[in-house]
Amino acid sequence: MSTPEDRQQLWELVKDIKFAMFTTRHPDNGHLHARPMTTQNKRLDEDDRLWFFMSRQSDSVEDLAREPGVNVSYADPGKDSYVSVTGTASVSEDKAKARALWNKMTEAWFPGGVDDPDVALVEVRISHAHYWNVKENKLTQFFKIAKAAATGKPPSGMGESREVRLHAE
Q1: Which residue among 52, 82, 88, 104 is the one 20 to 30 A from 148 at the CA level?
Q2: According to DSSP H, which parts of 18-137 are helical?
């Protein structure tokens, strides 16, 4: 299982990424379907959940009602950091939590406000995450890749790749 430092590193990598790709499985044909969503957390909850607002009428909510296993992917190419989160999603009826997470950007999508019957607060309980975080600058990366191409040996020392297990699947 992860350490508090692992959890903090995971949050540090995703907290400033505006959009994540939220992937569900279509129950009819099994196809994966990803769509951009905004993570609503202000921090990683103590119970390791990510929060999103969605339309109750959307395919996303319908998909996760039938198949709750989801993937949420984050990418910040400018910082060379990438995170893939696997978890179990469900619609939460916690109005206090919805009010705590509500903001003006969300209201742009749901002008009826937090009490709009179409608003679904979706929680993803993280079971596993994998991140790649390249700390070397672009010039160093280029040099290492050029060296690897010349020597035929894969580049090494290209940042950190780590798996974080938060809950048993």
Answers
A1: 82
A2: 59-66, 95-101, 104-109
